[in-house]
Write a structure and sequence with these properties.
Layout (H helix, E strand, L loop, with lengths): L1 H24 L10 H7 L5 E4 L7 H10 L2 E4 L5 H4 L10
Parallel strand pairs: 1-2
């Protein structure tokens, strides 16, 4: 009988600890930021995106970028094949 009680007590303790940790660690909807950048800022972080240069002419795309991200970097526009199409010839347009 004792081993069953010990097992039952250990299982009950494990369930209680799991439930308690979930309640402590799970973020609440009311405490979360309303945008990705706001949620990141709450943790002292930046939230960014890599963006293709031609997308910057799309107003809806730029609106979303401005709302959701606080850091933007060039997607492929600054990679070697774009900036140096031939060895020794550079193109930064």
């Amino acid at each position: 009988m004792k081993p069953k009680r010990t097992l039952l007590a250990a299982a009950s303790l494990a369930v209680a600890l799991t439930a308690g940790m979930t309640a402590v660690l799970a973020p609440t909807a009311s405490g979360a930021g309303t945008t990705l950048k706001a949620a990141a800022a709450e943790k002292g972080r930046y939230f960014g995106a890599a963006v293709a240069g031609q997308k910057l002419s799309d107003n809806q795309y730029v609106t979303i970028l401005n709302r959701e991200f606080n850091s933007v970097v060039a997607e492929n526009d600054m990679k070697w094949d774009a900036t140096e199409p031939q060895q020794g010839r550079f193109n930064y347009t």
